[in-house]
Amino acid sequence: MNRHHAFSNGYAAYPRGKASHNTFPVSPHRFQPRPQPALRRRRQLLQRLCLIAAISTLLLILIFPSFRALFLPAVSLGLVSSAEDLQLETVRYYDLSKMQGSGSGWEHGERVLMCTPLRDAASHLPMFFSHLRNLTYPHNLIDLAFLVSDSEDDTMEMLSSMLDDLQNDADPKMSFGEISVIQKDFGQQVQQDVESRHGFAAQASRRKLMAQARNWLLSATLRPTHSWVYWRDADVLTAPTTILEDLMRHDKDVIVPNVWRPLPDWLGGEQPYDLNSWQESETALALAETLDEDAVIVEGYAEYATWRPHLAYLRDPYGDPDMEMELDGVGGVSILAKARVFRAGVHFPAFSFEKHAETEGFGKMARRMGFSVIGLPHYTIWHLYEPSVDDLQHMEEMEQERLEREREEQEQAERAERVQTLFKDAKSQWEDDTANIQEAIDKEGKSQASDYSSSSDVDSTKGSAEGPVAQPAAKEQGSAAITQEESTKERKQAKQ
Amino acid sequence: MAVARSMRRTSPITVFLAALLAFGFLCFLLSPSSSAAAAAPVTDSSSQLRREDAAEHPLSPPTKPFLKSQAVREDGQKAPPPVMHYNLNELSSTSESIKKGERVLILTPLARFYQEFWDNVVKLSYPHEFISIGFIVPKTKDGDAAVTALEQAISETQSGPVDSRFASISILRQDFDPPIQSQDEKERHKMSNQKARRESMSRARNSLLFTTLGPSTSWVLWLDSDIVETPATLIQDLTAHNRPVIVPNCFQRYYNKDTKKMDVRPYDFNSWIDSSTAEELAGMMGPDEILLEGYAEMPTYRTLMAYMANTGAPRPSREIELDGVGGTALLVKADVHRDGAMFPAFPFYHLVETEGFAKMAKRLGYSVYGLPDYFVYHYNE
């Protein structure tokens, strides 16, 4: 025991310093029990207290289950779930200043809401989905929203199955973000066929209903996480796959491309389609003054001559696609807008707002609230060509003409063929006959040498040879053919 | 010293083993309780309803809670959100709101947090599993303080008894600065500041509305953060009228020095019936000017609902038709908002914010009603 060199109270056994007798007034040889430290004296007590506390808590937990909620999170470190926890997250926190939208959204992970209103659009869906799949903007950042309204075909079933396929695609980069399919019927009596859709009288009420549908779709699907909203119709025929990036790059509040449509050659090959993108004109403003509160000016009809510069007519196929033009009204085929525009309250007026409704009213309202509204005259997307009733009539006439022409051609060809077959038959028959006759003549010549007979035999042979030739011709052919045939035969006979 | 000696001899291994044993014991004790809890909600209709309504993915309408655990694809990657169908044809907003389980969205632009406000909301007797709440808070120092206090209050409620928890709560931070920093009562009500203030307020309201409305909301209740007292049956009472837009009368309690006791006085003057004087005034105004109510500089002679209250013998179900509404407490059918009725942040027929909203709702073909004898109370500063 190494402690033997010292006393139990901790002092060295022998004074180290020479003047130690001054520093140690207490005699080192006197026995003193080592004083117990306070902690060790109370340890026992503490241990007992802890033990009692632990037992009582355990008992409490056992007897009163409601106490568990108090202890559990602390004791289990969150490993054991709380008794009342439903495993639901109920509180969400969003900072809208982070969802402003910038010119390079794909780099900053900005979410885009893509809205598409559908009505009896089953025939367009395969085309639309191929466009969706080809979009180059990161798919997981795009949320899709569809509104299926007043559809009588199988739009809904088709959409559901195609969306399921899309979302469960083997390629993980193919699936999109949140997908909402909204079903809402507005009881539209307005027909969707091209003629009634574009007829002047139906426009105002039709566009108010369209506006209502757009607002329902947007209000149900816009989330605080969205930085951009992209409106796209299902009946777009071709559009660049980079359209989102191309439009976003301009970093404007509202931006639309030019919309044209291809036409059949007999109609000129192509045509401006969307006439709702325009700049305001003095004439139109003056016209608006004269109209009553609920009137809606619709563009592209002779009834309202507005003399506005239209985006569509300014297209130059070889122009700079980045060229911008300020607009007041916009068309709805393809609109990219910052979500903050919609958050500020701009929507598609389903009433007459400054004499406009739907997308044109949207453009007007955005301008009213100080947002920039821009069109790209030389950046073009192509809308599907659906022939109008006039076109259809014209096409039907053309089709009939074509059919008639075809039938005529066919008839002529048939006739020519038949004539030819008859010719051929006649010719070969004739040749055979001639050969026979020749033979007969030769024979006759030989027999003449031995037994000279009259020429009546030769005549009868000729008649029998001619008989079978004339018969089928008389059965099938008209008199013209027969006369033709006979005349040729006569000629041939004459030659002979 | 026997105990002390034996303690000294305990090796770390013994202590470790003892701890392990204790932990195992605890686990054994607690595990049956959690399994019992997991089985419990099956019998609890409210919890079950909440679970059924929950969205699978965080990318979902803010009016729905979402599951904490997320689905995983076969290849180990996070599963994409499912395709969700919402049939809005089946969405109703009727006078039998509770019976049909119609969902209510309470929207509150929050400038300051009052505990009394939150307590009052928690006290509402409409089934809480049908209530979602949305807040929008400006990004200022005051706003930060308000959010901290609000989150504290929310976490208490949302971890409390299941029946008093709300279906979901969203807190939004505004993406633009309020025009005046001061929320002072006097500064706030200065006429020159009103237009800018109310336009900014409109944008805040629209931001809140259009991002949180979602596909399953039937009713929207606008409730200002300084409404500290309402009847607990507020939502049922207002939905019972089955009107597109309906507004109760907003009063304020104060200490009446003349009578030496607590008294009430009208507070919100934005609910009114239009007058020919106001229409004439509007006719003479420029396109960017607005008409304001409750200012002596601009007498409009409109009939104010605030003064139509019969405090002596109130008939709470008495309805009147209005032309302008205030936003302190306002119940709107979600359809009205979905059709596009919003709070104009620009002079709309010389009206902005809630008054402009009433005008827009009327332009869309809806009528607007007020309840002069049904009171809610504003905070008194």
From TrEMBL, chain A:
Compositionally biased region (Low complexity): 447-464
Membrane topology, as annotated: Single-pass type II membrane protein
Domain of life (superkingdom): Eukaryota
Keywords, comma-separated and alphabetical: Golgi apparatus, Membrane, Signal-anchor, Transmembrane, Transmembrane helix
Parts of the chain that traverse the membrane: 49-71
Similarity field: Belongs to the ANP1/MMN9/VAN1 family.
Name this protein carries in UniProt: Mannan polymerase II complex anp1 subunit
UniProtKB/TrEMBL annotation, chain B:
Taxonomic path: Eukaryota, Fungi, Dikarya, Ascomycota, Pezizomycotina
Family per similarity comment: Belongs to the ANP1/MMN9/VAN1 family.
Basic and acidic residues composition-biased segments: 183-198
Name the record gives this protein: Golgi mannosyltransferase complex subunit
Domain of life: Eukaryota
PANTHER family with a match to the protein in the record: MANNAN POLYMERASE COMPLEXES SUBUNIT MNN9 (PTHR43083:SF6), MANNAN POLYMERASE II (PTHR43083)
Pfam families attached to this UniProt entry: Anp1
The keyword S-adenosyl-L-methionine is annotated on this UniProt entry: no
Predominant cellular place of this UniProt entry's protein: Golgi
Residue segments, region Disordered: 48-84, 178-198
